Each structure stands twice: as structure tokens, then as C-alpha cells.
Amino acid sequence: MQSRPTQKALPPTSPAPAPAVAPRTLPLHAVPSTLLIPLAARAAGDACFPHLACGDAEASRQLRHLGVDVSTYLADRPTVLNVLWRTRRIRAAGRAFFARHPHAWGINLGCGLSHYFQWLDNGRNTWVDADLPEVMALRRALDPPLSPRLRRAILDITHPQWWQALHLPRRALAQPLFVVCEGVLMYLRPAQARQVLAQFATHAPAGSRLWVDVLPQCAVGHARWHSSVGRTGAEFQWGIRHPDELCASHPRLRLLQLHSVAECYGWLGRGLDALWNPWIGMPLYGLAELGV
Ligand SMILES: C[S@@+](CC[C@H](N)C(=O)[O-])C[C@H]1O[C@@H](n2cnc3c(N)ncnc32)[C@H](O)[C@@H]1O
Predict the structure, then answer these.
(1) For a FRET experiment, which of 3, 123, 276, 278 has its CA 20 to 30 Å from that of 151?
(2) Is there an atom of ligand 1 within 6 Å of 60 CB?
(3) Considering only CA atoms, which of 144, 147, 115 is closest in space to residue 17?
(4) Which residues lie within the region annotated Disordered (predicted)?
(5) How confident is the model over 2-28, as pLDDT tens digits?
(6) Domains in the chain: how many in total?
């Protein structure tokens, strides 16, 4: 993970709603600061793409309270679309998963400020939002109190023992887990990203699912050309040349689905996907469901 501080310190102080005031900046290092990109899309992107609207009331509330100016992120329309698309796909997958396993646990690795439990809470399941200390401090200041079924964990998924650090109780592991890791792995070094997949495959109970988004290898080292990520100082470090690489970290891993964002662009997107696939072996931006 990168550690260059890019933003000035100005922490929020209480969870009470605040009026929109002069734009602030956040006390986050480069990679954690990328959480503002999906937050902006989910809070204010519905109007740009009504057919992909998420209706994320939590994101809107958080953004109002933070008072940060995200207009430059909203101007990056392709990224807003990517985020809304992946959010809806993961939300739909979560609903289907918890319909099959109503008492199961969900875990969001590198959760940023996202709030899937607003949609996935069925009254019986449990959700864990996990991220680096600086992000979890921000969440603590912004979010409503926790409950036994909505938990937070301070977690560095580059640590070799991160799975153990989650301290999942026996009842969580007695059934399949629903795990999300979106907008995260591309910022890790390749060995670290593979280790995250391998840890999931080693420890998750049979039937568990992991949703990850993936970039092609050719994006690595080129974050400066990305309209939103380029502003943060974060760099893309992990990408893949072929979908099979997603399962190469562990024999238990299976690639169940790989969606391309091109599906949002209709026949034009599918045509472009078919054109570039022989060259880069992957969708330009994909969302994978892995299973064990
Ligand atoms: C682009 S944001 C995505 C946030 C969230 N998943 C979403 O979609 O809104 C990247 C997130 O990955 C988190 N992250 C990066 N490296 C991490 C690590 N080693 N352990 C845990 N989280 C990490 C950052 O702190 C940040 O919240």
C-alpha cells in the first residue's frame, strides 16, 4: 500500500448531519483517499445514469456530512458508471446469496465508506466492514452505532495473517461466507493480491463467494492517466493477463462468473470487448465471482 499523505487533516467530529459547507479535504493517504471516488458515484451518480441508479442513502448522508468537493470525480462519467454497475451487480449477488443462506455472514474487505448492509440486512445475517485504521476511524466518526449484526474490523489485507485477524466466530464459519473486495486489489502488489485470494481459498467454508473487480495487466503503472485515480497519487499495481490467473493462487478457487462493464454499453460495448479481447485477454474492467 502506498503511504504518501496527499490530503490535509480535517477529521469529522460527530455523526450528526451537517449542512454542506466549504469543501474540505480528508486526512487520508493516497490509496485510502480513493474511497471518495466510489462514494461520490454512489452518493450523486444516480442522476447521471438513472438506469443504473443505486439509491444509496448512506453515501449521500456521508458525503453531506464530510462536506468534501467531489465534483471532479463526478465529472469522470465512465468511472461513475463503473461504480454504479458493480454496486448493483454485487448487491444483486448479495441478495441472492442471503436468500440461500439467511443466517450467513458478509465481509467487505477494503470497505472504504460503502454500506452494503443497508440493502442486504435481512434481520438474521451479519455484516463486517473492514479496512485500514485511518479509514475505520473515519467510519467511526461518520456512521451510526454498530449492532451485533453490523460490525467493523481494522484490517490490513496485506498482512499474511489477515484472515485470523478478522476473528470470525465459529458460527460464521459454519456456513458459507459472502465476501466483497471491490476497488482494492488493483492497488496491492501482485504477490499481495494473490495472497488475499489464497487466504480466502484456504479458510473460507465451502460454498463461500468472493466478488472482486479486476483490471487488465496493461493498466498497471498507468493510474496517472485515469481521470479520478490519477488525482489521488495511488497507483495500479496488480492486473491480470487472463481470467485463469484469478484461480491460480489456490486449487480450491473457482472462477464462477466474469462480467465486463462493456455490458452497460449494449452492442457497441460488446463489439469493443470482442475487439480488444485478443490483445489484452480481459475486459477493460471486469467483476469476478470466485467460489470455493
Ligand atoms: C477505491 S477504495 C474502495 C472502497 C470500497 N471498497 C468501495 O468500493 O467504496 C479502496 C479501498 O481499499 C482500502 N485498502 C487499500 N489497501 C488496503 C489494505 N492493505 N487493507 C485493507 N484495506 C485496504 C483503502 O483503504 C480504501 O478504502
Answers:
(1) 3
(2) no
(3) 144
(4) 1-21
(5) 333 333 333 333 343 443 344 567 889
(6) 1
